């Protein structure tokens, strides 16, 4: 985008009172976000239904029930009164992935369950994905790409009908939301966003009553499956060693939260055994 166009766009949005400086929860990082959250929630809602329409979603069963249980706890802690929380378990053993769209639209693939291994692992990953939404990471990235999709008008069209947008523009939006691999546009979250989502995710899980140490154990297990097949587009991610070091730094704070809120029973008891160490799986949570 040229400087003149960027200035005009920002000026127009400022005139509408839409430019907001947000503060990210826990880390306190300030971010400039041009897109109102109401629009992002609308984009999340339409992206959710269009993405799920081509997947096999489990409507019942033990895995589904556990997802809803963990979802209830994480969503309570995330404290987003305007979110329309939804939790879908996608029956796809080949995909090691999970995501949360703005508005609280969450999906887990059955392929990730052996890596999560237990309820606390699921809570950390859900916290991490939820943090991408509540810390406005998609909106921050989309703010940089507004003109590519025709500005706010493009977003509004997308909201009205997820299919009523040219495929390339649709791909740009989904890419910014972290669904890029599904649609061919590869737009990984930055190292800053990933580290931030790890910290917030661990805090959410701890406050929901799950032991924060499980976040580090989870990345250890992720190492076991991912070392042989980390996709190239994840190359900008922090290494798992860096992620663990970052989590350890915040661990004392998380531990305090956990001590205040810990649940009865052992949430690290193995629920999903059978972690495979061979390659051949695609994706992983971003
Ligand atoms: Zn992530």
Structural class of the helix and strand makeup?
alpha+beta
Biggest β-sheet strands, sense, barrel: 4 strands, mixed
State Rg.
18 Å
Order of helices and strands: HEEHEHEEEHHHHHHHH
Query: If you average the pLDDT, what whole number results?
Result: 83
Distance between the termini: 27 Å
Hetero ligands:
zinc ion
Question: How many β-strands, per DSSP?
Answer: 6
**In total, how many domains does the architecture comprise?**
1
Report the helical percentage.
40-55%
Please mark out the parts with pLDDT under 50 across 5 or more consecutive residues, or reply none. 230-236, 277-282
Number of helices: 11
Using the alpha-carbon principal axes, give the shape: globular
Strand order in space, largest sheet: 3-4-6-5
Q: Provide the β-strand percentage band.
A: 5-15%
